[in-house]
């Protein structure tokens, strides 16, 4: 995987991705930014973590370098590596180094997926030293005030063998994300998908009904993303029951017994 | 011939009379899972199970036909209590299957929302109906159909006496326009039952849903009594352990406990506090079992010095320490572990009822099998690793020559010891047919099936205890044994006995698992309650000792995790295991199928 394909710089002045706040997260994030503190965002899937970071980056006018972490990600995927061309070898910065050099926001998504030895490169960056040593070139970069490190993860899964080390997590200002309150979520669904407010409201009712079965019947509660997806199908002319099955129910479980039962809930709301 | 006609006629009457449509019947079993999920989705309590409710005597006027046929006096209605969502075992009230099925879902929804359960019947039901029809358009639509069908089913107003007719009018109005009727006009008889509403609290003598509570209740029909008994047993098992003492036993068990207590009272030194505690627990049980002469039997044991406080070190092969939180000391050699090999269990195959799960698990766990892993920067291999090679060129250094890629199988290097609580409390009933021990047995089976697919190393042990001198450790499967019919035979033979000296069992399991060489070592505890034993090992003492044993296990590099079916476990497990290291299974009957998945999740 090339470095450029995992890093994405969003630099569209004037176009801020819409984000509907559910609490003080915008203010806290801004204060963290001004005080050069790194931020950790935790919350269930599809609750707006990525959207929030994109929104904040645009709002603060910083470039955003996003890295989706996985267990094959190495420190050099973050920091950089030597490449080769006709004239020989040359060094190229990884997304983390780029963000430090240019004073951007580096966003590590699903950070618990990364191996522990990968996350240690963050340590010196995320305390008050704010430095990034590059072993391969012998360079030591000092982060400018505009640089910010943001990581996110989903604490929902109980997992014995993975988790953030306390020494890592205590370096971050932490924001816990949950699902927005019903009226607000309906607003989000309506604006994101273009569906009418009444349908948006029904979809959110459905989402909340399904969420209350989550720790019992489902591995994970349906996020706003699924609801927005269903809404988009409906806005495009799809029958609501069909849309809910395709965009929500079948995404939540593979077990026929469960999906059948989930459809009963769909019918309780979209039946006719 | 005449007889034949007679029977046919009787049947016909019966059918007409009861207004039944057997061809359109829907059984609870076919919809219970869906109804339960809908119930939870609409805010119903996660802890309750779906149950086929008992019939309610309605006492309304029966038609001549009904009187002729002697039927239709009892009717199935829905209600929910602390243990169960009670739904009719079968619904055949309406001529269309879809209506009968919708009625199940409607009732489940009604039980879930019930916003004002303390209002009188009429107001309460109208409030619940309104909540649903306003919040859930799909249910509102089906309610419209159900109301029409229900009204068509109800006795014609023209045939009723004036007072009853007025009452019936009110009910119909409330059905058609929920919220519109303030009170039910008085009549000499209760109204004809409304299938779309929750069961009324029977007005007569403040009778409760469980009429079996009063000691001298006259016996009802035999079958009703039977199922009552079952439910009653379940109730006992779900009664919370008040003061950290005994778990609740079935009456039969109490007898054996009583006997047991009699022979175990030699030790003199009694600690008043512990004794008082034990007495408390006995009271709870005596009240709970306030029937026949069990209470009397128990009161005898109250005089016995059950508590035991002597610290004489024991000698024996496997002696384990125990933590005394009052003195903050780890007392050496305080517990004797007796390993019980279970050699005489008859080998057997996997029980038939688990075969389907076995297939499913094989499929699911196939995915966890070792995968190929690409190893970077190897001294040799079948591909060039560009990255270190370029680094090599960039630095013009000859030293580093590890620039090959190699493929290797990644083995899951994992050892898991599963420790199952086999104390007497596991004899409690979790439903109509199964006890906790049966659920644990099935769980052990399915767990083993799943792990033998992953090829993770695992061992199975069970434990119970009878004071500190006899902590019984049952070997079901060691790490070295294969999972085969011999092991299945042992799993099959487990049965509940005595108490739960958890700390000692964990220490012993820690020793065994600690000897395994694996990168990750998981100690999985399967239980249904708190630590406790027949001496001072209960309440805080047992909890603190277990906690200490777990801290020691963690220091050895083991990962302890607890799976419990005790619904009250959130009160003490966070303290013992740590917040993220346990899970409460709300429906014990789901433990067998959930345990393997949980394992997969924990070790993915
Ligand atoms: N507060 C919000 N404001 C606007 N849109 C939102 C909000 N929350 C969620 N969304 C919508 O939900 C979608 C999913 O959100 P996002 O991708 O940010 O989730 P996430 O929390 O990053 O999930 P994951 O953990 O799976 O990456 C967004 O594309 C957006 O449409
Ligand atoms: Mg995201």
UniProtKB/TrEMBL annotation, chain A:
The keyword Nucleotide-binding applies. InterPro entries: ATPase_dyneun-rel_AAA, CbbQ/NirQ/NorQ/GpvN, CbbQ_C, P-loop_NTPase. This is Nitric oxide reductase activation protein NorQ. Belongs to the CbbQ/NirQ/NorQ/GpvN family. Residues 38-172 form the ATPase dynein-related AAA domain. GO terms for molecular function: ATP binding; ATP hydrolysis activity. It comes from Sulfuriferula multivorans. It comes from the Bacteria. Residues 185-267 form the CbbQ/NirQ/NorQ C-terminal domain. SUPFAM superfamilies: P-loop containing nucleoside triphosphate hydrolases. Keywords: ATP-binding, Nucleotide-binding.
Automatic annotation (TrEMBL), chain B:
CDD domains: vWA_norD_type. Pfam families: VWA. Gene3D superfamilies: von Willebrand factor, type A domain. InterPro entries: NorD/CobT, VWF_A, vWFA_dom_sf. Residues 216-226 have a biased composition (Polar residues). Residues 413-602 form the VWFA domain. Residues 203-239 are annotated as: Disordered. This is Nitric oxide reductase activation protein NorD. It comes from Sulfuriferula multivorans.
């Amino acid at each position: 995987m090339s470095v450029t394909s995992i890093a994405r710089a969003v630099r569209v002045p004037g176009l801020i991705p819409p984000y509907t706040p559910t609490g003080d997260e915008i203010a806290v994030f801004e204060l963290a930014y001004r005080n050069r503190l790194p931020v950790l965002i935790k919350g269930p899937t599809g609750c707006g973590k990525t959207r929030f970071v994109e929104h904040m980056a645009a709002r603060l006018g910083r470039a955003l370098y996003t890295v989706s972490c996985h267990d094959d990600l190495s420190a050099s995927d973050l920091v950089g590596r030597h490449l080769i061309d006709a004239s020989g070898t040359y060094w190229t910065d990884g997304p983390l180094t780029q963000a430090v050099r240019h004073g951007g926001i580096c966003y590590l998504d699903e950070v618990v997926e990364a191996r522990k030895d990968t996350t240690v490169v963050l340590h010196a960056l995320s305390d008050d030293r704010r430095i990034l040593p590059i072993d391969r070139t012998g360079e030591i970069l000092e982060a400018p005030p505009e640089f910010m490190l943001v990581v996110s993860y989903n604490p929902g899964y109980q997992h014995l063998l993975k988790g953030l080390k306390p020494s890592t997590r205590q370096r971050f200002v932490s924001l816990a994300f949950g699902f927005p309150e019903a009226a607000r979520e309906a607003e989000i669904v309506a604006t994101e998908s273009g569906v009418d407010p009444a349908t948006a409201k029904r979809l959110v009712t459905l989402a909340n009904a399904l969420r209350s079965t989550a720790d019992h019947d489902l591995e994970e509660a349906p996020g706003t993303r699924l609801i927005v997806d269903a809404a988009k199908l409906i806005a495009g002319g799809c029958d609501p029951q069909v849309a809910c099955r395709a965009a929500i129910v079948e995404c939540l479980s593979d077990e026929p017994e469960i999906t059948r039962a989930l459809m009963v809930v769909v019918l309780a709301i979209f039946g006719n | 011939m005449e007889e034949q006609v007679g029977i046919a006629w009787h049947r016909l009457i019966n059918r007409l009379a009861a207004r039944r449509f057997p061809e359109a019947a829907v059984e609870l079993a076919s919809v219970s899972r869906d109804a339960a999920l809908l119930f939870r989705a609409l805010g119903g309590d996660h802890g309750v199970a779906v149950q086929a409710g008992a019939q309610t005597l309605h006492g309304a006027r029966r038609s001549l036909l009904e009187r002729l046929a002697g039927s239709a006096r009892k009717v199935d209605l829905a209600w929910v209590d602390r243990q169960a969502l009670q739904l009719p075992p079968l619904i055949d009230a309406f001529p269309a299957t879809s209506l009968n099925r919708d009625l199940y879902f409607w009732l489940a929804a009604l039980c879930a929302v019930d916003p004002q359960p303390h209002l009188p019947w009429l107001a309460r039901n109208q409030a619940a109906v309104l909540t649903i029809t306003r919040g859930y358009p799909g249910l509102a639509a089906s309610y419209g159909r159900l109301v029409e069908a229900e009204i068509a089913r109800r006795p014609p107003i023209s045939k009723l006496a004036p007072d009853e007719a007025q009452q019936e009018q009110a009910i119909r109005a409330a059905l058609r326009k929920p919220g519109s009727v303030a009170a039910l006009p008085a009549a000499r008889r209760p109204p004809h039952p409304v299938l779309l509403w929750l069961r009324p609290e029977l007005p007569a003598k403040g009778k409760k849903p469980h009429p079996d509570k009063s000691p001298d209740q006259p016996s009802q029909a035999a079958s009703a009594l039977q199922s009552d008994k079952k439910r009653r047993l379940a109730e006992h098992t779900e009664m919370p352990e008040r003061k950290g003492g005994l778990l609740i036993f079935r009456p039969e068990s109490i007898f054996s406990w009583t006997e047991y207590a009699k022979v175990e009272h030699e030790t003199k030194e009694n600690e008043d506090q512990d004794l008082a505690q034990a007495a408390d627990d006995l009271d709870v049980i005596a009240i709970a079992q306030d029937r026949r002469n069990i209470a009397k039997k128990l009161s005898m044991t109250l005089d016995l010095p059950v508590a035991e406080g002597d610290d004489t070190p024991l000698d024996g092969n496997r002696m384990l320490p125990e933590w005394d939180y009052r003195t903050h000391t780890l007392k050496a050699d305080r517990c004797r572990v007796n390993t019980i090999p279970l050699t005489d269990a008859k080998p057997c195959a996997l029980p038939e009822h688990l075969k389907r799960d076995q297939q499913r698990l094989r499929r699911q766990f196939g995915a966890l099998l070792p995968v190929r892993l690409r190893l970077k920067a190897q001294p040799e291999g079948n591909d060039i690793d560009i990255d270190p090679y370029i680094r090599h060129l960039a630095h013009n250094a000859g030293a580093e020559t590890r620039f090959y890629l190699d493929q290797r199988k990644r083995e899951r290097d994992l050892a898991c010891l599963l420790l199952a609580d086999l104390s007497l409390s596991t004899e409690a009933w979790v439903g109509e047919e199964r006890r906790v021990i049966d659920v644990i047995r099935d769980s052990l089976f399915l767990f083993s099936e799943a792990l033998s697919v992953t090829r993770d190393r695992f061992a199975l042990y069970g434990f119970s205890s009878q004071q500190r001198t006899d902590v019984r450790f049952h070997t079901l499967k060691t790490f070295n044994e294969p999972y085969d019919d011999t092991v299945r035979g042992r799993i099959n033979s487990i049965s509940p006995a005595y108490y739960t000296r958890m700390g000692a069992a964990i220490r012993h399991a820690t020793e065994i698992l600690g000897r395994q060489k694996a990168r990750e070592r998981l100690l999985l505890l399967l239980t249904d309650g708190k630590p406790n034993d027949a001496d001072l090992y209960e309440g805080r003492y047992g909890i603190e000792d277990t906690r200490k044993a777990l801290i020691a296990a963690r220091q050895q590099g083991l990962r302890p995790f607890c799976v419990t079916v005790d619904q009250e476990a959130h009160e003490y497990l966070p303290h013992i295991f740590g917040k993220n290291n346990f899970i409460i299974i709300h429906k014990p009957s789901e433990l067998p199928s959930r345990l393997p998945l949980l394992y997969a999740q924990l070790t993915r």
